[in-house]
Design a protein that fits this description.
- The chain is α/β, with parallel strands linked by helices.
- The protein is built from 10 helices and 12 strands.
- The strands form 2 sheets. A 7-stranded parallel beta sheet has the order 8-7-6-9-10-11-12. It has a 5-stranded parallel beta sheet with strand order 2-1-3-4-5.
- Helix 1 runs parallel beside helix 10 and helix 4 crosses helix 6.
- One of its GO terms (molecular function) is NAD binding.
- It holds the Pfam family 2-Hacid_dh.
């Protein structure tokens, strides 16, 4: 693969200023003779580019040699068409574990310690304490992390640090440090029944789409909470709303949704013990630095005739 110019697409502005990544990559790849520039995805802007770093997919990318996603998930990219066009697709797996893990820890603590209620009461200048038996401590509780890859690893570390016992679900029952028991996906309903927190950290694929539906929610304890930092499509959102309304589960903390932004008329905004966050669990001021490190290493590998980091296609 020849690599003379890399474009940084304007879509990354949803996460960090494109200029920050342009400047950092330009400094890091200068020795390799690679030019880095900001682009808007148009054919003219991409005319001299061999590669692009992006959040969104654009049809114009099918004419490039390499597309790098700043996210770990690549469900928005047409992998088969990229493969047919000999376009290499890479992702940013491995950089989100710390931020997402801390976000999940925050959700767990907020729900147990009732912090979300105090924040809501503050907007109305209300001095409201919880009932004597509402707040509780998380040490000794059990969490089930569904998907113990890069994201799941960061979540496991934070939850065990808080004193929770952690089970995990993955395709193969390979042991994982810090995880008491690892189950295969066919035993999902069995393992989530024992958990106070069910945390979703899987990519969106044909196999995971809608994998948390009515039956899975019914298998959860009625005092359990669902935390989703994966993709909205992993959960049947209508079934989730019904389970919350019928008190089949205690609540939820949701960073991702079937439709984003979450529509103003969604019942999830107003349901009790539901925390809504705007798909920002991975956000950190160091995001662009982490992406730069991956892309820079890939540039070095490509120059040496090797595979780039985190190749998906």
């Amino acid at each position: 693969m020849r690599l003379d110019r890399i474009g940084v697409d304007e879509s990354v502005a949803a996460v960090f200023p494109p200029a920050r990544l342009v400047d950092r990559l330009a400094d890091a790849t200068d020795e390799a003779g690679v030019d880095v520039t900001a682009v808007d995805g148009s054919p003219d802007a991409l005319a001299d580019c061999d590669a692009v770093v992006t959040l969104e997919h654009r049809e114009t990318y099918l004419d490039l040699s390499w597309v790098h996603s700043i996210q770990a998930g690549v469900d928005r990219f047409p992998r088969e068409r990229l493969r047919e066009g000999n376009v290499v697709l890479t992702n940013s797996t491995g950089i989100h574990g710390d931020a997402v893990g801390e976000t999940v820890a925050g959700f767990v603590l907020a729900l147990a310690r009732r912090i979300h209620e105090y924040a809501a009461a503050q907007t109305d200048s209300e001095w409201t304490r919880p009932d004597w038996d509402e707040a509780w401590t998380v040490a000794g509780e059990r969490a089930c992390v569904v998907g113990i890859g890069g994201l799941g690893r960061g979540i496991v570390d934070r939850l065990t640090g808080l004193g929770l016992d952690v089970d995990g679900v993955r395709r193969t029952p390979v042991p994982e440090p810090g995880v008491d028991r690892v189950y295969t996906t066919d035993r999902l309903r069995e393992v989530i029944g024992d958990a106070r927190f069910v945390v979703l950290a899987v990519p969106l694929t044909d196999a995971t789409r809608g994998s948390i539906g009515r039956d899975e929610l019914a298998a959860m304890d009625d005092e359990a909470y669902l935390i989703n930092v994966a993709r909205g499509g992993v959960v049947d959102q209508s079934a989730l709303v019904a389970a919350l309304r019928d008190d089949e589960i205690a609540g939820a903390a949701l960073d991702v949704f079937e439709t984003e932004p979450l529509p103003a008329d969604s019942p999830l905004w107003d349901l009790e013990d539901v925390i809504v966050s705007p798909h920002c669990a991975a956000y950190t001021r160091d995001y662009y630095r982490h992406v730069s490190e991956i892309v820079t290493e890939s540039v070095r590998r490509i120059a040496d005739g090797d595979e780039p980091v985190n190749r998906v296609v």
